[in-house]
Amino acid sequence: MEYQTLNNGVRMPLVGFGTFMLGGETCAAAVAQAIRAGYRMVDTAEAYGNEAAVGEGIRQSGVDRKELFLVTKVNFTSYEDAGQAVACSLAALGTDYVDLLLLHWPFANRYAAWRELEKAYAQGKARAIGVSNFEPDQLLDLIAYNGVAPAVNQVETNLYCQRVDDRAWMDKKGVAHMAYAPLGQGNRAQMFDEPAVRALAEKYEKTPAQVMLRYLTQKGATVIPRSVQPAHIQENLDIFDFSLTHAELATLADLDKHEPLIGKPEDPEFVEFSLTW
Ligand code: NAD
Predict the structure, then answer these.
(1) Which ligand 1 atom sits nearest the alpha carbon of residue 236?
(2) Contacts (Cβ under 8 Å, ≥6 apart) of 256
(3) pTM of model > 0.70
(4) Of residues 48, 79, 160, 215, which has the active-site annotation?
């Protein structure tokens, strides 16, 4: 495993296991399988409704919780009472701290919620705090008017949505980049079939998924791919035994379409949709 060091000195693995859309037994089994395969980071969220199943998967894995890097997020519908939401997440996960606690979306009263996250951090309930889906202006605003700067911004990032401009601001402000939907949620089959990706997969005897995950990690982003298939779970972790050359990185950079799959916060239809969660 490779790591990146957050702005408070905490080390975060460069690959983690995503759990969006997973629940119950399936979720617990996939988390246990991933941890046994070697993953040391698991990403969940209040909004996924699966924190108890993630906690169960951790216990089933037999690996000491202290060896793991656990990430959860407060849903924006809980921002007025984020302290209580954090307490519920910790109870569901069966732990007294998480390694990274995020605000899930820049909606609702995010300032009140951020101050509750700062308190949770001060009380040792989170080793680091951060945000998700924050655009650069929202990130800069939060940093300018609060005591603790976010350690991480978790944003959709994949071959077709590389976030180069967002990343420049994150780097400038010392905010680590965590790439969600790094495989395009499985809805972008064309990414896997890009001739450049296929050629690199052949050259390095890797799969297209491994090439894309290696690309993002070589660019300094942490990736959190999701799968319930044992072969894919293993494959998505085995990406550190090859490196793309400078020219190959440039070729993949050219494939950016600047197109997120998931709605932007300023999109009114997306806000409408999110309120129905
Ligand atoms: P993803 O990009 O990880 O894609 C998952 C899909 O890719 C699944 O359908 C899976 O079957 C397929 N897949 C996985 N490994 C593969 C492989 N090796 N080869 C071929 N297909 C493969 O999508 P995701 O789950 O949406 O994103 C990853 C994680 O990011 C989530 O599980 C969640 O933890 C997090 N996330 C966060 C937010 C947010 O708002 N912060 C939003 C979405 C996802």
Answers:
(1) 18
(2) 159, 160, 161, 162, 164
(3) yes
(4) 48
